[in-house]
Each structure stands twice: as C-alpha cells, then as structure tokens.
Task: inverse folding
C-alpha cells in the first residue's frame, strides 16, 4: 500500500531542499570563474586592484560557498532517509556518479577552497592562481557528475532489471556516463550558473556606481561580468535548445506538456507563444501560434512528427499492458524460480515493467487491473501542464533578456561608458533576482516535468519512498523549513552587509576610498 | 576481472577506510568544535583555535560525503536501511553539519560579542551531536535493528529515535565522543600556541584514561553481555545480492564466536596502547607523533568494531533473515569493479593534494597573527 501523504510530503521536502540548495550552487559555479578571471588579470598585469577585486568578491563567494556545501549534504542524505526504495532500486547505477563526483570533483574544490582564502600570504602568485583555477574546475566537474546522475533519471540508459536482486543493475557504464541528456544538461546548467555569477557582479557593481563609490573597482568588475555574462547567456540559450532537442527524443511527454501540445499536429508543428492551457478539456485557450517553429526546434526537420499528449497517453496504455505481462511473469518466477516459460515471458517484456508499477502507484494490483484502471494509470502520466508551460516560457524570456542586457553592457563597457547612464545602472541593479528565477524555474521544468516518474519509464516516484510515517516526514519538513529560513535570513543579512560595506568600507582599497568618500 | 567475493571483501575494507578517513580527518574538526569554549577562553583565542581548522574542514567533510556516496553505490541496501531506519538520528547529524559551516564562516563576520557567543554555542553543538550519534549508531549495529524486507525487498522499520538510545549504544556513543575530543585535543596541541596548546595537553591527560575505561567497558559488554548473530551454514559469497536468500541464527558471543573476533581483539589492544601513548607523547612535546598516534587510534577503534561485526553490516533484530551482510548487500560485480578502478585512480591524487595543502598551512596559528589580520574568510 502506498501512503500518498508520505509521498507528497517527501516530494515537497525534496523539492524545497533542492530548490534551496540551488539558490547557492549556481552562484558558486559562476562567481568562482569570475574570481579566476580577475586573479588571472592580476597575475598577468601585476596591478593590485585586480587582487583586491578577487579578494572582495571572494568574501561574498565564501559566505555563499559554505551554504552550498551545507545544503548539498542534505540532498545526498535524503535519498537514503526519504527515498529508501529508490536507493535500493537504482543504487547500483545512480550511486556511482555520485561517488565519483566526490572522488573526482568535490574533494578537489573543497580541499582548495580553504587555500583560496588562507593561502594569499603563503603561496606565490602563480601557485595561488593555480589553486583558484582548480577550485573553479572542481565546481564545474562536480556539476558534471551530479547532472550525469540526474540525466539517468530522465533517460535511464545502460541498465536493466535483475529479478534475483529486485533492482536495476548496470550493463554499460559508458552509456550512463555519455548519456546525451547529461551532456546538454551539463552545459546548459553550468552556463546558467555563469550567467547568475555575472549578474551578481554586474548588479552590485552598478549599485556602487549609482552611489559613486569604488568607481574603478566597479567599472572593471562590470567589464568582466559583461563579457563573461554575454558568452554565458548565449551558451545557456543555445544549449537550452540542445536540451530541448534531446528531450524530444527521450521525454516526449515532458516536451508535449511544456508546449501544451494536446494533439499530434501535422509537421512541422507550430510553437505556442502564449495561451491558457486547460487540463480538463485538453485544450489551450487564446493560443497564439508561430507556425513551423516547434517542429523545426524539436525535430530539426520539416517532416519530423512531435506526438501530442493524447497520443502519448494511448502509447502509455499499451506499455502498461506489456508491463502487466512482465509483472505477472515475475510473480510466477517468485514462487517457482525454474519456470522457464515465465522467465522467457519476463525477459521479453521486462523493459515495460515500470509501466505496470503505475498501477501499483494508484494502489491497484497490476494482476487484476481492469481496462478502466489501465486508462486511469495512463492518464496519470500527464504532468502538470500549466506549471510547465509557464515555467518554461518565463525561463526562456529571462534567457533572451540576459542576452540583451549583457550585450548592451558589453557595448557600454567597450565604449567606456558604463557609469554614464543611470537608467542602465538601475536596470542592471534590479535585474539581480532574475537569474535565480530562471534557474529555479529551469529546475521545475526538468524535475516536475519528469513526474510521475522518479526514473522515466522505470520507477514511479510514489514507489520510491521510505517506509517512514507521515508524522516523521512532517517533523523533518518543519525542521528544514525553520532551519533553512533562519539560515537564509542570516546569509542574506551577511551578504547585504558585506556588499554594502564594499571594498572601501572594508579598508581593502585605501586609495579608492580616499578619492571617493562615502 | 576480480571475482565477486574478493570485490565484496575489498569494498568492505574500503567502506572501513572511507569511514575511518572521515573519523580521522573530520574527527578532529568535530573535536575542536565541541571543545571551542573549553580550550579557548576569549575571542582572540577562539578565533585562533578555529583558524586551525577553518582552511581544511570543508575538504575533511568530503570524507563523509564520499563515504555516503560510496555506501550508496557499493552497498545500496545498507544505504537504504540505515538512512531511513535511523531517520531522526540522521536528521540530527545533518542539522548539526549544516550549522557547522555557518559557525565557521559567519562567526567572525560580525563583531558583536553576543553574535559570536551564540555561534560558539552552535559550533559546540555541531561538534558534539555528530560525534555522539555516529557512536550510538555503531552500538545499535551489534544489538540489531528492527527492520524486515518483503519479497520485493521493500524495507519496513519498526522503531523510533528513542529505541536507538539503549544503554549499550549510549556507551558506544560516549566512546565515540571522547575519542574525537581526544583527537581534537591532539590537533590543538599540534597547531595552537600557548595558552591553548598546553591546555589541550592537560586535557589529553584526562581524556585518555576515560577513553580507555569506556572502550574496555564497551568491549567487555559486547563480549559477554550481547547476543551475537551468525549466518546459518556456509554463506553464498558470490551469489546475487538478496538478503532473503540466507538464514541467520541468534546466540553465541560477538568476539569469541565472530569470524574475525580475534582480529578485532588485536586491533583493540593496539587502539588502547595508542590511546595511552597520545598524552605521553604530547607531554614530551612530540606533538606531531601524538597526533599521528591519535589518528591511528581512531582507525584501530573503528576497524575493531567493523571486524567484530563481520560478516554482518547491519543485523535485523525483527527478522534476522533480513540482516545485511557483506555477501548479500553489495551492488553488482560490474559496479564494484568500476568503482574500485575509480578509487584506485583518484584516491592517491586526493591524498597527494590534501598532503600538499596541509604542508602549505603547516605551523602553529599565532595569536599575534589573529590580532593583526583582517579575516577574508
């Protein structure tokens, strides 16, 4: 029996802690590269201001890094505490990229982050620069392995079910590691982090310019942010498109839901720019279409067909029937392990075993399910269309806005006019929250869009939970909310305090503060 | 390709190495955190004491992250049962570990003494709680934990946090706490100037006998007072991982009848000798040797527990057949093999650059330096 209260609470807890973790991680990913670039300029030119820049932004990096590390441990532990059956069911495959992340990347970044702060007087310039670059490299490698694990949840390649151990086992690690979904996700996600880091530096520097403080410091910082941010914003949109293309192949339902594409259209399909998706009627009201665009983006051809939601539901119903055959054979094998006929039947249909579990998820025995049960289970694979539709559109709009803002910043920087236009500085300042909005919405599109699956086509989320009680999860959830809110307040307080103090207020740049008091 | 049985033994040893790595490397951070208010009396002293661990605690904590990741990948059933079964205990550890970085990187950022004092308490708690709970968890392994599997290997657990806090587990928790306090003091003696260093030396003189008495007490209780588990018949060491394929007997003695009980006793003797040696070395100003002895002691104590438990990883008191052993809780041969390659390639690299970082940071943290420096961290 699946206790849906436990499932919902566990999902809510995972979502909150993951979204919270993802407030800090992209800033770590992006800011560390800015630090490495600034310090490289310092080592190449020997000009002290670049060292101060690295150190000042480094203080803000440090506050953020600690929170990223702390909240990341929660996520790793949570697979075990709240998703125990998931951990058993896929640990053979899913655990490996996490462990390799620790060995290859996390050790590197966490070991060198201390030397970044405490090594200024103990290391030569070049040695310290190497440390900073290793730190930057470590953070991005870390993202690579985490996203390889995540990509396997979206597109579970290189593994098959083993009836003796009742779990998924690896057949090919190279397929798991070189999962096409992992590669596009990796570049898309780290680019999003780079955009966020660039915006962070751009916005706070714009604030200094508006106040007439730290002028040289802020202009240099903005120049770095504008160039790095422009490259990253272009990459995030282009690779976002690549991500879209890979989900066309592997997660057709997610794509159809993002586009609110209820019925299969004749190719090339139109892109819905705007509309109000209506789940009950399976229709999108007031839709504004752009002909051809969706077919071209999704299939990169004029004749590729993108299946609509209704057609995908029908296909799912067929898979559920297949899965039921595998499920029935599995029950026979459990009573008699030498039943050759059942084993052959199981092997032939086991790829769809997960679809039979869609019935178990609704507390229906797959052996005795009626056709109505099957169609109900098939319907339950439609994700939350309006949430995906809107999350995706806001995220993409942000992406194009970032390109425009960074391109304009870059143009101003190259004309040395960054401090001339106050309206621009205000826009740059108030754009600060947008990359966070885009990043969190991106997470929602990717992970909420995967529902009802924990592992696409293999394990429904509801079946992955631990055998804990709803009251236990309530307690931990409330604990996390109180705890994380307090930490967020403290973290934000310190960030604002140090950003306000600025390099002049911290006495890091005495000449500067003498020239520009205030 | 290495055969499945050997791979399981290797990964059982590696599990011990990774957990011992955590206990040694992050153990002194926990010990220092727990003793921050005891070893250091004013703000300058506390900043100096904390600066002995601030540059490296993040790297040290990765031993835990990697340990958990390796359990996930190599012992998925152990990961699933231990983490969800010890639900609130794990959450307490987690909350403590989340607070710790706040303590380290937020404490010095505001000068108000109330702010700093509050964080010092937070740091103390964040050191004591994990040290205690890890020991309590190890103590419970010997008693068995109330879980069972159904035939789809879905686990159910019948117990709560209070059930974990029996007298024997609390005693083991005490051993674990004192062990890490001692290890922290050995670090403070090595890295701190007077008056912190000598204070740590004096404390070592109290902690060492206390640890030996508690450790011997726990060992005697284990040897004579706790029923052991044993696999019935010959274990199928290379069979697919399914705990339900075996039978388990309850009865007999953990050390006397255990497969590696003799080894466990030998390790225990070494651990006691090392525990006795740490304060003696420290008093003679051999601080580096004292710290190394302390690290080896932590290693020996942890392995003595692991060897005493072999071949069990996590016995079940509710349904002994469901117990997890080295032979039926691992991941597939393929995964164990690949993970072994990854460890063989990366572990030497990790040890090399970690050593380099500690070399760069060598020497004592001076109070003069603390008074003069603007902390960038």
Result:
């Amino acid at each position: 029996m699946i206790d849906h209260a436990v499932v919902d609470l566990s999902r809510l807890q995972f979502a909150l802690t993951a979204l919270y973790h993802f407030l800090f991680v992209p800033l770590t990913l992006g800011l560390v590269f800015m630090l490495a670039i600034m310090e490289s300029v310092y080592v190449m030119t020997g000009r002290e201001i670049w060292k101060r820049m690295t150190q000042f932004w480094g203080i803000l990096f440090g506050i953020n890094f600690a929170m990223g590390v702390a909240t990341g441990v929660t996520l790793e532990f949570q697979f075990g505490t709240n998703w125990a059956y998931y951990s058993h069911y896929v640990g053979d495959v899913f655990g490996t990229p996490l462990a390799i992340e620790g060995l290859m990347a996390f050790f590197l970044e966490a070991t060198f982050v201390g030397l970044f702060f405490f090594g200024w007087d103990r290391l030569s310039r070049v040695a310290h620069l190497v440390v900073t670059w290793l730190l930057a490299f470590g953070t991005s490698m870390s993202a690579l392995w985490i996203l390889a694990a995540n990509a396997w949840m979206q597109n579970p390649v290189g593994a098959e079910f083993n009836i003796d151990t009742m779990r998924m086992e690896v057949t090919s690690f190279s397929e798991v590691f070189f999962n096409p979904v992992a590669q596009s996700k990796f570049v898309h996600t780290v680019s999003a982090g780079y955009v966020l880091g660039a915006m962070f530096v751009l916005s706070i520097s714009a604030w200094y310019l508006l106040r007439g403080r730290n002028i040289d410091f802020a202009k240099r910082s903005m120049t770095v942010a504008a160039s790095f941010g422009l490259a990253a914003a272009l990459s995030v949109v282009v690779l976002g498109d690549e991500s879209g293309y890979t989900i066309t192949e592997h997660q057709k339902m997610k794509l159809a839901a993002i586009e609110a594409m209820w019925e299969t259209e004749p190719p090339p399909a139109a892109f819905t720019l705007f509309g109000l998706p209506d789940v009950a009627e399976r229709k999108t009201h007031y839709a504004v279409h752009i002909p051809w665009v969706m077919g071209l983006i999704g299939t990169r051809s004029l004749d590729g067909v993108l299946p609509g939601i209704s057609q995908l539901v029908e296909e799912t119903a067929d898979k559920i029937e297949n899965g039921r055959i595998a499920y029935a054979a599995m029950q026979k094998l459990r009573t008699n392990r030498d039943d050759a006929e059942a084993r052959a039947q199981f092997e032939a249909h086991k790829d769809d075993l997960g679809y039979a579990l869609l019935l178990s998820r609704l507390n229906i025995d797959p052996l005795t399910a009626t056709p109505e049960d099957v169609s109900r289970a098939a319907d339950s694979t439609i994700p939350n269309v309006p949430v995906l539709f809107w999350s995706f559109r806001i995220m993409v709009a942000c992406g194009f806005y970032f390109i425009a803002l960074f391109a304009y910043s870059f143009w101003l920087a190259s004309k040395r006019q960054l401090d001339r236009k106050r309206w621009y500085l205000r826009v740059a300042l108030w754009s600060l929250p947008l990359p966070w909005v885009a990043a969190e919405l991106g997470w929602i599109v990717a992970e909420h869009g995967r529902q009802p699956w924990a592992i696409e086509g293999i394990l429904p989320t509801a079946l992955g939970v631990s055998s804990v009680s709803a009251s236990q999860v309530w307690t931990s959830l409330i604990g996390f909310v109180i705890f994380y809110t307090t930490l967020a307040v403290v973290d934000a307080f310190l960030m604002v305090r140090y950003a306000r103090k600025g390099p002049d207020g911290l006495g890091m740049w005495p000449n500067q503060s003498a020239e520009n008091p205030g | 390709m290495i055969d499945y049985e050997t791979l399981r033994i290797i990964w059982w040893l590696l599990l011990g190495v990774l957990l011992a790595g955590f206990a040694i490397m992050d153990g002194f951070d926990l010990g220092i955190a727990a003793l921050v208010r005891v070893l250091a009396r004013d703000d300058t002293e506390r900043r100096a004491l904390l600066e002995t661990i601030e540059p490296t605690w993040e790297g040290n904590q990765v031993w835990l992250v990697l340990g958990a990741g390796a359990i996930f990948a190599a012992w998925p059933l152990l990961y699933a049962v231990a983490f969800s079964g010890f639900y609130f205990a794990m959450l307490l550890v987690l909350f403590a570990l989340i607070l710790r970085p706040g303590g380290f990187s937020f404490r010095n950022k505001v000068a108000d003494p109330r702010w700093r004092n509050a964080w010092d308490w937070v740091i103390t708690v964040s050191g004591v709680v994990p040290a205690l709970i890890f020991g309590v968890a190890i103590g419970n392994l010997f008693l068995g934990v109330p879980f069972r599997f159904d035939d789809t290997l879905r686990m159910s657990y019948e117990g709560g946090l209070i059930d974990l806090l029996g007298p024997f587990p609390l005693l083991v928790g005490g051993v674990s706490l004192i062990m890490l306090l001692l290890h922290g003091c050995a670090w403070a003696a090595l890295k701190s100037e007077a008056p912190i260093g000598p204070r740590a030396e004096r404390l070592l003189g109290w902690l060492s006998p206390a640890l030996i008495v508690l450790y011997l007490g726990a060992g005697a209780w284990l040897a004579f007072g706790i029923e052991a588990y044993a696999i019935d018949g010959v274990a199928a060491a290379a069979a697919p991982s399914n705990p339900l394929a075996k039978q388990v007997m309850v009865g007999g003695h953990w050390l006397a009848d255990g497969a590696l009980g003799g080894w466990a006793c030998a390790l225990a003797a070494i651990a006691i000798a090392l525990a006795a040696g740490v304060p003696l070395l420290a008093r003679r100003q051999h601080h580096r040797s004292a710290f190394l002895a302390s690290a080896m002691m932590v290693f020996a104590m942890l392995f003595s527990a692991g060897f005493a438990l072999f071949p069990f990883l996590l016995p079940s008191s509710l349904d002994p057949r469901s117990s997890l052993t080295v032979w039926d809780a691992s991941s597939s041969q393929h995964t164990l093999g690949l993970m072994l390659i990854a460890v063989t390639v990366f572990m030497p690299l990790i040890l090399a650059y970690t050593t380099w970082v500690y070399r760069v940071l060598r020497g004592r943290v001076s109070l003069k330096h603390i008074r003069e420096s603007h902390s960038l961290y």
Summary: The two ends of chain B are 47 Å apart (CA to CA). The first strand of chain B starts at residue 147 and ends at 149. Residues 4-359 of chain B form one domain.
